[in-house]
Design brief:
alpha/beta; 5 helices
Length: 185
């Protein structure tokens, strides 16, 4: 309860649906960022995936995946700005460490078959509490905010989600440094 950020959450209506393919261990991380998106966005779905297990969406729920695009960096990805004038379609993000997200992608012919888009980071990543594989790699939440701000009609502003993440990080760093005393039980 001492690091609960629920009081900071403000629900936002996103027109572009967000689909998160989440590694099975990710929900156990208290400092994971996709939970902030899940609590904040009106159109979001989280599906579980594992390393070396092909991810294929449930056929009963295939409609949410129609015309989906994968948001993932790579040489074969297109710039996210190309989607800005199109009708909303599902935006798929893989949530896990960079190593685990790559394993999910490589293990899933379905995810590999999706058109791939990425973005050029506009600012330095803010998620300072977990190590990134590259200095310009974003957390799942940062990527979601960057993409939604790029594709949704103006004045789309999802930066409030990052304010929640920043608060969470500051609380955690305070515990690590000893500035925030741990609650007694």
């Amino acid at each position: 309860m001492s690091v609960c950020y629920c009081h900071l959450i403000k629900r936002q209506n996103n027109h572009w649906p967000v689909e998160i393919v989440q590694h099975s261990r990710e929900p156990r991380h208290a400092i994971g960022t996709s939970r902030i998106a899940e609590l904040s966005l009106s159109s979001i779905n989280v599906s579980e995936a594992r390393d070396n297990t092909p991810f294929i969406p449930d056929l009963a729920q295939s409609a949410p995946w129609e015309n989906a695009v994968l948001i993932y960096p790579g040489a074969d990805s297109q710039d996210i700005c190309e989607l800005a004038d199109q009708a909303p379609r599902p935006l798929v993000f893989i949530d896990g460490t960079w190593r685990k997200s790559k394993a999910i992608l490589l293990g899933s012919p379905f995810l590999q078959s999706l058109p791939r888009y990425s973005f050029k980071p506009g600012q330095q990543p803010r998620y300072r509490i977990r190590k990134a594989a590259q200095p310009d790699f974003y957390s799942t939440l940062e990527a979601i905010v960057e993409v939604l701000n790029s594709v949704e009609a103006a004045p789309a502003d999802y930066s409030q989600l990052l304010d929640v993440m920043d608060w969470m990080i500051e609380q955690q760093l305070g515990y690590i440094s000893g500035e925030n005393p741990l609650p007694s039980t």
